Amino acid sequence: MSTVTSSFTDVAASNATLRAFLHGLPGVDRVGADQRAAMLGTRSIKTTAKARAIDLAISMVDLTTLEGADTPGKVRAMCAKAVHPDPGDPSVPKVAAVCVYPDLVGRAVEALGASGVRVASVATGFPSGRTSLEVKVRDTELAVAAGADEIDMVIDRGAFLSGDYRKVFDEIVAVKAACARDAASGKGDAHLKVILETGELATYDNVRRASWLAMIAGADFIKTSTGKVSPAATLPVTLVMLEAVRDFRDRAGRMVGVKPAGGIRTTKDAVKYLVLVNETAGEDWLTPEWFRLGASSLLNDLLMQREKLATGRYSGPDYVTLD
């Protein structure tokens, strides 16, 4: 319970009190959320602002490879791109993190060295979360021991949808504890990003409840999706999550980050999300410390649009590497 913000200790006392609190949150006006997200998505920005937005978006990307065919070589290549997205232009910022399966964390740590790019690892039975708590905790401990800076865990959606909020809460608390690192390591505890898998939560009210549940349990970030379920990230769902972190800071005094993941492929998409962050949560969240974009294919488009702004023309098809 030590990970719980003190003002919410009583809320987490039992499933009944958690349920009463979560179902007492204001309901989400679905039509209103859809309309506001659509309206913010039409905002246009001028060339100089667009250049800054592209660099900011690049710095927020979590480059990801989560396939059964992943190899050490693929991870090393991804890490090289993470540090130098455009080897011909050293002014391009590095990305925020790379995300890999736990068994490849050591390879990523070695490849990235002291670059400052973080290593994230999925854990806890990703992407389904259908395994025991003991396995989830051990999965996390192994990734942290291998050097992961961030852990992306998935919640048990079955437990959440059946109303067993205490089980979801307890699992987040346990995984958060497993993110702790020995002081002798010289590194701080790994940050915990809690994946809600919003495409399976069905309603915006459930998205808001799951967001608050994760934050009360100690999440450092809340994340929309695994990228394995459709729909993945959407502007309205991210709007609901941004409202949740904004309201949570007002009430609990702690900032929590947000990461939309899956389906964000173009620079235009990325800019829409940055506008959404600014207009909903505020400028404090417009940093890689508090907002990430889980979209590996996005990086290539950002690089091509950046080149277009700088030179007035698009680069050839071989300008960026294939992911």
TrEMBL record:
<comment type="pathway">
    <text>Carbohydrate degradation; 2-deoxy-D-ribose 1-phosphate degradation; D-glyceraldehyde 3-phosphate and acetaldehyde from 2-deoxy-alpha-D-ribose 1-phosphate: step 2/2.</text>
</comment>
<dbReference type="InterPro" id="IPR011343">
    <property type="entry name" value="DeoC"/>
</dbReference>
<keyword id="KW-0704">Schiff base</keyword>
<protein>
    <recommendedName>
        <fullName>Deoxyribose-phosphate aldolase</fullName>
        <ecNumber>4.1.2.4</ecNumber>
    </recommendedName>
</protein>
<dbReference type="GO" id="GO:0016052">
    <property type="term" value="P:carbohydrate catabolic process"/>
</dbReference>
<dbReference type="GO" id="GO:0005737">
    <property type="term" value="C:cytoplasm"/>
</dbReference>
<keyword id="KW-0456">Lyase</keyword>
<dbReference type="GO" id="GO:0004139">
    <property type="term" value="F:deoxyribose-phosphate aldolase activity"/>
</dbReference>
<dbReference type="Pfam" id="PF01791">
    <property type="entry name" value="DeoC"/>
</dbReference>
<comment type="similarity">
    <text>Belongs to the DeoC/FbaB aldolase family. DeoC type 2 subfamily.</text>
</comment>
<dbReference type="InterPro" id="IPR013785">
    <property type="entry name" value="Aldolase_TIM"/>
</dbReference>
<dbReference type="GO" id="GO:0009264">
    <property type="term" value="P:deoxyribonucleotide catabolic process"/>
</dbReference>
<dbReference type="InterPro" id="IPR002915">
    <property type="entry name" value="DeoC/FbaB/LacD_aldolase"/>
</dbReference>
